[in-house]
Design goal:
Chain lengths: 140, 151
Amino acid sequence: MLNYRLRRREPKERPPPDYDDRYEVIAEYKAGDGKRPVIPLIFKFLREGTLVKYLLILLLVLNLLLLSTLALNAWAAYELSSAQSNAAEILAGRHTPFVKAREVGVTGDARIIELTFSTGVDALDSLVWVRRVYVKVGVG
Amino acid sequence: MSDADVADVYVNFDALLKVYEHFVRKLPKEAMGFLLGDRYTYRGKEWIEVTDYVPVEAEASETRVTPLEGALVKVGKLLQRKKLLIVGWAHSHPGYGCFLSNIDVETQRRYFPYDYQVALVVDPYSMEYDIFVLRGDTYVRPYFKEVIKRG
């Protein structure tokens, strides 16, 4: 019974899947090649777990965004804290190009200087939590 | 690509997945089924495509599997409907690797005697599998490729 069709059917001429655009060869194994075939379940996940896949990609993107934001804020904090000790120089136009200084007032003998961190890209700047600090610079 | 790169067997991923899912459902016992597909030639070389798998109801233990009476009749009807050939059989070796035992070789020789008919063995625990064909008194791995049909 198992061979009922075999007796009636001769093999048809047809190019193998390697030549057929509808197919993709994902692995190949030969006698004695030492490779141990494993059921490629990753393809099931990639094809059927569409929702899970998109959630994971979304999570990955959010993680990258969070990491970039943290790195950007760490950089801003470093730039501003080092600028605080050189406020007068920054006011004179020397020092880092990412921190701008502006005199906003005078109190007694001291000047109040506003230090603003800016990358030059508004979208990036909007991600910085503390962009502006004030420092008093004494005179004489 | 040269003609020498044409494999003996092309296993469709969907069929492989069906085999695996059936065998996992039947754990810790062995399970078996038929590989369906068709045989073709290309520039004089014969190759087969495994496109589907049909589980066979069987009496199984952890180390042995025998088809139940009546199970083969169901398969025969399915074959008529799908216009496919039996291009081999698949069975599981839960936890003891992929090879053909003496009983498996005898089963292959008796029920799957054609050159193109293959035996697929899967260890569902390790997810490993292998494909064999009989050559004389022993069995060898043919040149085979896993394929995915797009779309």
